[in-house]
Amino acid sequence: MTSRTLVAVLTGAGISTDSGIPDYRGPNGLWQRDPAAQDLVTIGPYLADPEVRRRAWLLRRDGGALRAEPNAGHRALVELDAKLPMRVLTQNVDGLHQKAGLRDSRVLELHGTARRVRCMDCEFTCPTERALERVAAGEADPPCPDCGGILRPATVMFGEALDPVVLERAAKIAQLCDVFVAVGSSLQVHPAAGLVGVAVEAGARLIVVNAEPTPYDELAEQVVRDPISTALPALVATLTG
């Protein structure tokens, strides 16, 4: 690798499981344990059913995602950033890349962030912790304090489209990178997963780090099945060596 090599890293839920945040689709994923939990992150049921919103707020309060700490996989990407031009394109909404030390300019959050909430009806937004304080005070489904509208996470929920500006920026990075690393993603959720094809078609080397097979494995120069918290630091050492 040279100092001018651009590395793009697409991260999915698997990079955060060692931080105590369960993935959705894996063998021990949230939806395997509780199929009804999919409603909590799907826009239609969330807007239509106050009970779904109440359960979603309890999940945010008790799930521990906002209290989670970065693991060795997140820290390895900080080390990569110190040595090579890189960008993280993340499907995650947990903010752990930034918490590990990556600057906001290095991270493109394809699916938004769970660290803020916003109103469906006006422009109100605030940190999620502030809304959770109202839940702790007894508001099971806290409305917008400005207009009374429904508060929802500042994420792209299932059933919603990605921000086209964000997607365009991600596609540009995929087109320009020399190496594309997909980490901890099933590569089944589009259009984010399609960034892999964009990178490969533009000539990038593809490396897949994931415990389970993905639809793009046969396009990869290297497929790593080892646990991400050990595999990613080793891969970063190879890329920067």
UniProtKB/TrEMBL annotation:
GO terms for molecular function: histone deacetylase activity, NAD-dependent; metal ion binding; NAD+ binding. Transmembrane segments: none annotated. The active site is at 111 (proton acceptor). It comes from Kitasatospora viridis. Pfam families: SIR2 (PF02146). Residues 1-241 form the Deacetylase sirtuin-type domain. The lineage of its organism: Bacteria, Bacillati, Actinomycetota, Actinomycetes, Kitasatosporales. CDD domains: SIR2-fam. This is protein acetyllysine N-acetyltransferase. It is an enzyme of class 2 (transferase). InterPro entries: DHS-like_NAD/FAD-binding_dom, NAD-dep_sirtuin_deacylases, Sirtuin, Sirtuin_cat_small_dom_sf, Ssirtuin_cat_dom. Gene3D superfamilies: SIR2/SIRT2 'Small Domain, TPP-binding domain. Its EC number is 2.3.1.286. Zn(2+) binds at residues 119, 122, 144, 147. Keywords: Metal-binding, NAD, Transferase, Zinc. PANTHER family: NAD-DEPENDENT PROTEIN DEACYLASE, NAD-DEPENDENT PROTEIN DEACYLASE SIRTUIN-5, MITOCHONDRIAL-RELATED.
